[in-house]
Amino acid sequence: xxxxxxxxxxxxxxxxxxxxxxxxxxxxxxxxxxxxxxxxxxxxxxxxxxxxxxxxxxxxxxxxxxxxxxxxxxxxxxxxxxxxxxxxxxxxxxxxxxxxxxxxxxxxxxxxxxxxxxxxxxxxxxxxxxxxxxxxxxxxxxxxxxxxxxxxxxxxxxxxxxxxxxxxxxxxxxxxxxxxxxxxxxxxxxxxxxxxxxxxxxxxxxxxxxxxxxxxxxxxxxxxxxxxxxxxxx
Length: 234
Ligand SMILES: Nc1ncnc2c1ncn2[C@@H]1O[C@H](COP(=O)(O)OP(=O)(O)OP(=O)(O)O)[C@@H](O)[C@H]1O
Known about the structure:
Elements: E1 2-11, E2 14-24, E3 29-33, H1 40-48, E4 55-60, E5 63-64, H2 70-75, E6 78-81, H3 93-99, H4 113-117, H5 119-123, H6 134-146, E7 152-156, H7 164-180, E8 188-192, H8 196-202, E9 205-210, E10 213-219, H9 228-232
Parallel strand pairs: 3-8, 3-9, 6-7, 7-8
Antiparallel strand pairs: 1-2, 1-4, 4-5, 9-10
Bound molecules: adenosine-5'-triphosphate.
The site of adenosine-5'-triphosphate (ATP) has 13 residues, from strand 2 and helix 1.
C-alpha cells in the first residue's frame, strides 16, 4: 500500500503542494482529479523522486521513500507512466520495453503478458517508437512501466490526445491489472486524470486537488453525488 502524508513541495518560492495526503491500495484504482496547474503532475513527480519535497511522508509497503533516489523507488516496485508518454522515438518498440527493465538485474526477461495485454506491441516489436500512433505510444509507455513487474502503477493522464477506442482498451487493461496484476496478484493503481467520464468509470477511490491541496475524496461510486464533475470542469 502507498501512503502519502502531509506532503509539501515548492518550486523556488512557489508552494505547489500544500499538505497532500492520500493512500492507494492493491486491487484498487485511485484517481487524482483536478484542473490544469493544481499540482497533479508535481504530486506524481514527488512520489517518484523526480522533484524533492520539503516535508511529509511517502511510504510504500511500510518503507519510507521520501528521501530515497528515483531508481530505488522503481526497484521497490513503483512503475511510472509520465505525462506525454516520453517513449524513445528512435528506439524500437522492443528496445523501449527493455528500457523498462533498467531497475532490474541484467538478463531479466520481459514478461510475456505485456504482449497479451497489448497485442499491437507484439506485431510492432521492430518498429521505431516514433512511428507509432499516439495511442500505440501510450500503450507502449504503460507496457514499459509494467516490464519491471511493479506492484504500484502510477499514470499521468494516459488519455490525453488519444482516440476513444484506445482509451477504452487502456481502461480495460487498468481494471484487469488492479484485479490480478500480471501474475494474479492484485496491483495498486494511481491514476491522474482530467477526463471525468474515464475517471468515474475506473475509480474505486477518488481525490480532488485544488491549488495543491486535497479538497474532496471518497469512493468512486460517490463521485457523481459529490459533484466532482463540476470541480474539474474546464
Ligand atoms: N519545473 C517547474 N518550475 C516551476 N514551476 C512549476 C514547474 N512545474 C510546474 N510548475 C508549476 O506548478 C504548478 C503545478 O503544476 P503541475 O504540472 O503539477 O499541475 P497539473 O495539475 O499536473 O497540471 P496539468 O493538468 O496542466 O498537467 C503550476 O502552477 C505550474 O506552473
